[in-house]
Amino acid sequence: MNQENFRLDWRSEYRKLTPIFQGEPCIFRISFQSNDAAVDKFNYLIKEEFQNGNGNDQRLSARLDDAWSITYTINDQIDAIGRKLEEAGISIDWSQTQSGVGDVASGNQTGGDLDIAISGSVIINGMDVSAAGVQKRLNLVCEAMRQFVASGGRFMLVINDMEKQDQGKIWKAIWNAGLREAGGDRLSLVYFVGPKCGQAPHDDAPAPSVAFNLPHDIEADDTRQNEVYDDAVEILTDHGYSPEEAAGAAGMLVDSNSHSVRRLHMGLSKAMMNWSVRKGVAS
């Protein structure tokens, strides 16, 4: 088993996410308290589950966060969605966003950002970051989205936890500015609410179809502890452990790491890696 693909527990969360895995249009808001909730792992798994869903429809997903660019994140995030659509063979003519200032830009010898204002545009490092420029870029991506969903595709947009003001920019400049309408009933949304945004979504965040909290520990939940134990035994046995060895390792895993879901996953990954090393030495 690939060490990235295993899943410990999260049974109830996965049941709630069933509509999105089946390709139904929906909006999910997932809240979490800290990185101990293993959000990155959960994020990866729902992407894999969605993209490998049943049916003949083509499925794509894009994840947006506040690390795409240090300064002008909205254009980068629009581009990220566009690049995903291009993977499906949808052509986007990015030249339509250029403002014909190549000769001026090519003369920049400063080594820093080049900031030029021409006819209402604001060109920084060859990219129009004015409101009109951002909308022009989004319009191209929205047209590509329309083509993708018209061909039978389904798209899932995931928005990570981020500062509330950055989250608000996405709702205003991407989601409500055309993307939601372009994707129609073949576009689903998952957005995370955590420490960066103060545990509360921006006022412009869309109302969720389903909302739930991602647990950060299982210390006080006997049911989850039992389910994690059962999952770990099954995963380790499939990976090559004997039933007795798997039971012992799973028990230690739960006893030592129930205070952090993230550490549970890290511990299991380490156990799988150690077993692979042992097998390699033995052979």
Describe what this molecule looks like in 3D.
The chain has 283 residues and is α/β, with parallel strands linked by helices. The chain has 2 domains: 13-90 and 140-213, Rossmann fold (3-Layer(aba) Sandwich), CATH 3.40.50; 222-282. It is built from 10 helices and 8 strands. The chain has helices at 11-16, 18-21, 39-51, 73-87, 102-106, 131-150, 164-183, 222-239, 243-257, 261-282, and strands spanning 27-31, 59-64, 115-118, 121-124, 127-128, 154-159, 187-193, 210-213. The strands form 2 sheets. It has a 5-stranded parallel beta sheet, with helices on both faces. Strands 3-4-5 form a 3-stranded antiparallel beta sheet. β3 (115-118) and β4 form a beta hairpin. α4 (73-87) runs parallel beside α6 and α9 (243-257) packs antiparallel against α10 (261-282).
Give the secondary structure arrangement, pairings included:
Blueprint: H1 11-16, H2 18-21, E1 27-31, H3 39-51, E2 59-64, H4 73-87, H5 102-106, E3 115-118, E4 121-124, E5 127-128, H6 131-150, E6 154-159, H7 164-183, E7 187-193, E8 210-213, H8 222-239, H9 243-257, H10 261-282
Parallel strand pairs: 1-7, 1-8, 2-6, 6-7
Antiparallel strand pairs: 3-4, 4-5
Helix pairs in contact: 4-6, 6-7, 8-9, 9-10
